[in-house]
Amino acid sequence: MSKKIYLILIIIISVASVAGYLSYNKIDTGEDSLRTACLTSGGEVATSSCCTSVSDFPNQCNVGACACSPQESHKVKVCDCGEGRCFDGKECTKRNESSESNFEEKGYLVKYGQEKNWALNYEEPGKPALVVTLKFNEESKCDLAHGNKPCLEFESYGEVGNRIKVIGTQKEEVVIVDKLIYIK
User: Fold this and answer.
1) Contact 119, 133 (CB under 8 A)
2) 55: β partners
């Protein structure tokens, strides 16, 4: 064989060796360390529908990462830390009490806009016909006369015009729902 063929073979073997080494010793993309941080701090790996800009193991102690509409969401790995705890991007920690609900109103379930957003129509003295958009995340609970279940398990939250009570955190005209309760 000629020297050119030996040189080509050496290059091919070298490239294959480097590729095999890198594939065998996977380069840490950060996901493995976040997964480990979740598990060692008492959490369990789960999946959830989060905003398209969010990658695996987001900070779930702040409201927003997983509160987008279904059209603007995708499945990612999350750390489920259990009741009263959240994953802050480093570990499972006690949920911040300052993020407690600041909204509790009774009213009527409505849909509005081109995207047919779910909303609550309610009244306050001197301010009739107020409307807030309802946003649901993996922690939102719904009691639609069938028991307390995660809201994301439901395709519909009832019929337009149903009387409901909403407890959650309001930011401008949007309420991140902690609990939605059907009222007979």
Assistant:
1) yes
2) none
Over the Cα atoms of the chain, what is R_g?
24
Burial of residue 13, with CB atoms counted within 10 A of its CB: 0-12 exposed, 13-18 middle, 19 or more buried: exposed
Q: Which residue ranges form the domains of the chain, and what is each CATH number? A: 31-97 (no CATH), 100-182 (2.40.50.320)
What backbone phi and psi angles, to 5 degrees, belong to 109?
-75, 130
- Ranges of residues in the chain with a pLDDT under 70 are 1, 20-30, 62-65, 67-69, 96-100, 146
- Rounded Cα distance, 174 and 120, in Å: 10
Type of residue at 50: C
CB 49 within 8 A of CB 152: yes
Q: What pTM was estimated for this model as a whole?
A: 0.47
* Token code pair at residue 44: 């369990």
Q: List phi, psi (to 5°) of 30.
A: 100, -25
E-strand ranges in the chain read 44-51, 73-80, 85-87, 92-94, 103-112, 117-124, 127-135, 141-143, 148-150, 163-171, 174-182
> Is the separation of the CB atoms in 86 and 61 below 8 Å?
yes
